[in-house]
Amino acid sequence: MSMQRRAAAAMAVAATTMALAGAAGAQDAGRPEQRDRPPRNVPPADQPLIRRIPEPTIAVEAGFGALGYLGATAGVGPTWNVRVTGAMTPRVAIEGNYTGSVNERATRGTSLVMTSLDAGVRYNILRADEAVVQPFVVGGVGYSGWAGEGGDAFALVVPVTVGAERLVTRNVKLGARFNYRPAFFDDLTVRGAATRTGGDSWALLAHGGGAF
User: Fold this and answer.
1) Per mean pLDDT, which range of 9-23, 88-102, 108-122 is the poorest?
2) What is the DSSP annotation of 167-198?
3) % of the chain residues with pLDDT over 70
4) Digit-coded pLDDT (tens) for 69-95
5) What letter does residue 42 receive in the DSSP assignment?
6) Phi-psi region of 64 (alpha: psi -120 to 50; beta: other; left: phi over 0)
7) Nearest to 177 by CA among 189, 199, 197, 162
8) Residue 157 forms beta bridges with which residues?
9) Which of 64, 68, 73, 203 is the most exposed place for a label (fewest CB within 10 A)?
10) Of 209, 201, 212, 171, which is closest to residue 101 (Cα–Cα)?
């Protein structure tokens, strides 16, 4: 084989190799997994590997305040509350509540003791990062029972709540809420009373607790 033919063959082989390499590179670049794969960006050892800590999603709180009844059922008395809240989204959460209260019967001098359990859906009017406090509303359904003279062992309640709260530290929150609790299938009328009284009530509570 002459020198010219050897040079021409070498050039042909080199051109073919370069063409195949270019086609393979173009094919790899066109693959979605190659194009969309994020670059590796692991920080050095003197920087934190996890740079953002997730916001709390579970809160356990306790509250204390005053509760009164609509009508002449009983006077205003102390109330307390224990609540567990689970955040589903920045706007929506699920609440479970225990509420108790002690109120004095105005005409009898005896106490009416309430125990209530309910569950509700909470909607945050603003997200936590949109204002200095986070306003919210809650609607739910539950059970209430009253012990004492004229008490009723079972009633259906549909609590409606408005309130506001905020995180003080990453795991401590404080807030306040106003609660209206209409009751159904209830009768708290004292024997011999001229008018019927029921379990519709309102409550104003301050609350605080931990978020995890």
Assistant:
1) 9-23
2) ESSSSEEEEEEEEEE-EES---PPTT-SS---
3) 76
4) 998 899 999 999 999 999 999 999 999
5) P
6) beta
7) 162
8) 142, 183
9) 64
10) 201
CA dist list (Å): 154 to 101, 122, 176, 191, 198: 15, 25, 28, 18, 12
d(CA 93, CA 103): 31
* Amino acid letter, 9: A
What tokens does 16 get? 């073919």
- Which residue carries 């019927």 as its tokens? 196
Please name which of 140, 171, 132 lies closest in space to residue 158, comparing C-alpha atoms: 140
Distance CA 109, CA 113 (A): 13
pLDDT tens readout for residues 46-68? 777 666 655 568 999 999 999 99
Report d(CA 91, CA 152) in Å as an integer.
Answer: 36
Alpha-carbon gap, residue 73 to 57, rounded angstroms? 39
Phi, psi of 25 (to 5 degrees): -65, -40
Q: Residue 129 burial (CB < 10 Å; 0-12/13-18/19+)?
A: exposed
